[in-house]
């Protein structure tokens, strides 16, 4: 699916994109109240939004459950009906939001006919999403470390998901293992994004696209070839066309 053709109803927002107290999601009391499942789902969404914004503002260590509930307009008893505690809610917000990011990247990647253009479009989709929701970017990229071992495990599991975008890279010389190189590249991209967010320049993330595109292609194609493909209309270069998955180097 071409992300340019996504209907508004198909687009899932990142947690933190709306305020927890968004009037459009208020729960009306009385006999016409929504079904219990719908109410619980709405309260959960509001709590995730409230958590992301509170953690981005105060930091994970200083954000309290009461702060999160206040930002969401949801009571503490309801919070504990839905989550085991602050860490559980944080990880739920992280998983949901990063899932949205990865799916949007996958859609952008699949819309291109070649790997080079696909990588660039996937990176662009990620950078635009994070820049558009700075509270989620701060919560997911910066504050994840403050969660402790569970947060680091969650981050490591996320980074391995990005291997799928490099399934078609060519064989490397000198016995260098492709997966190890891919993991190094993914880690470098994450580090560059971290530094930009940590320095308060989240809105400038899309400016990283040229350098990150080069960083992702150069280890596998060489700097000169990566520059040529990024500088030309990549989709018109037959040497960058995706190979048959059955013969792709894993």
Automatic annotation (TrEMBL):
Record Pfam families: TetR_N
Keywords: DNA-binding
Residue spans binding DNA: 64-83
InterPro entries: Homeodomain-like_sf, HTH-type_TetR-like_transc_reg, HTH_TetR
Stretch list, region Disordered: 1-36, 230-250
Domain of life: Bacteria
Molecular-function GO terms, alphabetical: DNA-binding transcription factor activity; transcription cis-regulatory region binding
PROSITE patterns (alphabetical): HTH_TETR_2 (PS50977)
Biased composition range(s): Polar residues: 240-250
Span of domain HTH tetR-type: 41-101
Protein name: TetR family transcriptional regulator
Species for this entry: Kitasatospora aureofaciens (Streptomyces aureofaciens)
């Amino acid at each position: 699916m071409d992300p340019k053709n996504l209907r508004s109803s198909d687009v899932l927002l990142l947690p933190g994109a709306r305020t927890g107290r968004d009037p459009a999601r208020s729960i009306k009391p009385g006999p016409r109240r929504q079904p219990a499942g719908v109410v619980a789902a709405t309260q959960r969404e509001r709590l995730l939004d409230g958590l992301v914004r509170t953690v981005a503002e105060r930091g994970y260590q200083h954000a309290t459950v009461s702060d999160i509930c206040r930002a969401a307009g949801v009571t503490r008893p309801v919070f504990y009906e839905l989550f085991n505690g602050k860490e559980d809610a944080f990880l739920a917000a992280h998983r949901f939001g990063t899932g949205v990011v990865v799916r949007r990247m996958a859609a952008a990647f699949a819309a291109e006919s070649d790997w080079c253009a696909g990588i660039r479009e996937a990176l662009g989709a990620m950078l635009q999403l994070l820049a558009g929701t700075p509270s989620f970017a701060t919560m997911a990229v910066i504050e994840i470390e403050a969660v402790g071992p569970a947060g680091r495990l969650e981050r490591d599991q996320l980074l391995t998901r990005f291997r799928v975008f490099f399934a078609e890279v060519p064989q490397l010389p000198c016995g260098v293992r492709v997966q190890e190189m891919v993991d190094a590249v993914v880690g470098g991209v994450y580090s560059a994004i971290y530094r930009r967010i940590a320095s308060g320049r989240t809105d400038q993330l899309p400016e990283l696209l040229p350098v990150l595109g080069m960083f992702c292609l150069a280890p596998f194609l060489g700097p000169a070839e990566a520059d040529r493909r990024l500088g030309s209309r990549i989709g018109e270069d037959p040497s960058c066309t995706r190979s048959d998955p059955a013969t792709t180097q894993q």
